[in-house]
Each structure stands twice: as C-alpha cells, then as structure tokens.
Amino acid sequence: MKREKTPPSKAKRKPVTKQIRLDGIDIELVRKQIRHMYIRVREGGVVRVTFPFHVSEKEVECFILNKINWIREKQRIVTERRLEFLTSAQLRDGGEIMLLGRPRRLCFSQADQPSIECSKRDDALNIALPNTLFPIEAHQDQVEKLLQSYCVRLLEQTLKSIFDQLRTRTGLAYSSLKIKPMRSRWGSCNPCLRSINISLYLVQYPIKLVEYVALHELTHLIEPSHNERFYSLLAAHMPDWRDRRRALRRGP
User: Fold this and answer.
1) Mutual angle of helices 207-220 and 228-237, in 10-degree steps
2) Contact (Cβ atoms closer than 8 angstroms) between residue 51 and residue 61
3) Which segments of the chain are extended strands (E)?
C-alpha cells in the first residue's frame, strides 16, 4: 500500500501588537494565533486584549465596549491595592510603609521645620513635624501631602541615577522626567518630545523593578510599539526582564 504523505503543518504566525485608546482607556491589542478573545487587566491597570487573526478590529472594539464597566472595576481594584501605602492606618507613629521594596517604620517627632529622612542605622523613616500638625490623626491630609512630596523626591533621585546608568549601557537618553500619581500605568512616554512619566506608586517597589520600568519606557523612545523589535531591544539590555515584570505584577 502506498504511504500517504503527511500534509505540511501551517507555519505559526507571529503576534501583531497595536496600542489604541478607547473610551478614555489605553489598551494593548495583540492579534495572535488563538481561537477566542481575552481581556486581562494586569498590575498597574494595564489592559491587554488578545484575539484571533480572523477577527476584525471593529469586532474587537465592540467586544471591549461591552466589557468596559468590568474593565473599569478591575482597574479600580488594582488602583486601591496600589494606594495602600499611604492609608490613614499607616500614617501614625509606628506605622509602616514600603519604600523601594523595604518596609519603613514611621517615627514622628516635633521640630520647628518639617523634614523626612530614612535612617541609615535601621528601618526607621524619621518624620519631623511642627507642633501645629500634632496630633497626627487630626492632620492626616497635611501629613500625607508632606510624605507624598518626599516619595516624589526619593523616586526622582533613584530614577535619575538609574537613567544615567542606562544611558551608559544603551546610549538612550530622555529630555524630561516627571513623577505623577498615575493610577492606570507604571509609566508613559512621548517619543517625539523624548519625555518620560513615571507613576509615583512605583516608589514602593525594589530598585530592580524600578530599573525594568525605566528601561521599558526608555526603549519606547526608539520603538513605540510592543512588537518583536521592542522586546528584542529590551532583552539585549535586560535579559531577565520577564522575571522583573512578573515580580512587578505580584505587587510590593
């Protein structure tokens, strides 16, 4: 009996990625070789929609709009989890917050001028406040504003050091850097202006994860899309970027 030839297998098509903004939400579309459509809201509120090659973009947009309330609710849950590092329960003497992956115990004291600094001897975050801000429980908003300003300065200093190192390694540099209380993403950039924005809430995470976000945004200055070239550039300068991304998604 003549042996039948096995039909050649179809070559696997590479995923195609595109960024869109729909109903005020930034969404990453990934067209790939799968059977169904999926929506995922990841840590940082990032929305990713994967769908088969045969599905049109218009069908995908309708699918997203039908799920828009679910997406917003998921983003809200992620945001609340991220904002936990400055709750009223923590803003007390002996309270604890995470700074750059390290738990810091809040130690309040009275002084003429407000100041905040990390102790070099232990895990204390020493916060000096004027008498007018005591008791702390009665001035939560003002104390939180002071602590948030400190977190902005701490993250800005950390990032500038990281970006200096990355410039040496990659030859890439930004023109402006801003720290913002962004709720739906860890970072954003404008390739034309070469400007980068980083979420304030990243201050909770270890420096290795801050480095990942910094390189991610820096790479977008030369490759705006999440395509094969983007991930190749990322891997060339940070081979373990996937491990860092997974750790970032798990939370501080």
Assistant:
1) 140
2) no
3) 16-22, 25-31, 38-41, 47-51, 96-99, 102-110, 115-118, 124-129, 176-180, 187-190, 195-199
Average pLDDT over residues 109-118: 93
pTM of the full predicted structure? 0.71
The answer to whether 186 touches 205, Cβ cutoff 8 Å, is no
Q: How far is the C-alpha of 186 from the C-alpha of 1, rounded, in Å?
A: 63
Residue type, 6: T
Q: Six-digit token pair at 144?
A: 């939180």
pLDDT tens digits for range 240-251? 999 999 898 877
Residues 6+ apart with CB under 8 A from 147: 86, 91, 97, 116, 127
Say what the pLDDT of residue 85 is.
Answer: 60
Write down the residue that tokens 């009665």 correspond to.
138
Please report, rounded to a whole number, the percentage of residues in the chain having pLDDT higher than 70: 90
The rounded distance, in Å, linking the Cα atoms of 151 and 4 is 69
**Can you tell me the distance from the alpha carbon of 109 to that of 225, in angstroms, rounded to the nearest whole number?**
49
What CA–CA distance (Å, rounded) separates 115 from 108?
A: 10
**Res 3 pLDDT > 50:** no
